[in-house]
Design a protein that fits this description.
By secondary structure, the chain is α/β, with parallel strands linked by helices. Helices cover 36% and strands 24% of the residues. The structure holds N,N,N-trimethyl-histidine (AVJ).
Amino acid sequence: MPRPQSNPAARGAATPQFGAAVEAARAELAAGLNHHPARISPKYFYDEIGSKLFESICLLDEYYLTRAEAAIFLENAGAIARAAGQGATLIDLGAGNCAKAASLFPVLNPKQYVPVDISAEFLRGAVAKLQSAHPGIPMLPVGLDFAESLKLPAQVQAQNRLFFYPGSSLGNFTPLQAAQFLTRIRGACGPDGAILIGIDLVKDAAILEAAYDDALGVTAAFNLNALRHANEFLNSDFYLRDWRHVALFNTVHNRIEMHLEARRALTVTWPGGARSFAAGERIHTENSYKYTRRGFAELLESCGFGDITCWTDTAQSFLVCHARAI
Ligand code: AVJ
């Protein structure tokens, strides 16, 4: 499901298309709407509008994550290079426009660059541009829903693999799903592989809630866009003005939750189904888990990683870790 700054969409984009994929998306959406409490997967944020809204979120004062991570990469470039070594097989999970990984090329000097994204089409355009700027780095774009499977093509070099998973995208998974996903990455690492991963840290609820409920209303639009996108898929009749954006920090689970709350009692219908909502009833659209430095290192260790080095920004708001498969 998760990540971006570049084209997050990519990290789980769902675009209306023909055939089995659309049928599966419709079934998933209908099942989520019939669930109690109702839910819509965060992957439905990322159509064309949603991807642009996410890029705008990354520019907001309140959304510190993107800037904090970029500052960590910039200020610790030397140390990151020493930990990761030169000439890695750089596997970029949810690469989108490839911008984050490309900014690390001078630091990492990868021997092969493997951007992975659900949308192979989108990748091809980005990689064509990047390849002409870096003719010396062999690039192998892979269209794959890596949250489902990490089966990489045989042309991906087995030695010195470095999985790159920035942007706190892991935060969209529950801790259990996150552990399963990291364990799968560990399995794909081979004997000498490693991970370079960015994750948001637990902090004051007011700062977190502002990051997910900005004054300009961009995150509200981003959240509401899931309903517009659902209407496209499902032919449902969500009327966006009936819904209100809600973001809250759940201190029991250390996660930001985003919901859409019905402003009045209403019924949503779609071909073959319907769901009534009471006034104030919510649809859960996203979890964004936050970790402590200690908790995140323990998670990596429990998934077969060790020799962990982490860096943070001066405000200690965000964490970047390098960890080796052991
Ligand atoms: C792309 C999942 C990292 O959780 O911060 C931003 C998505 N949601 N604002 C996050 C998001 C609301 C973002 N991730």
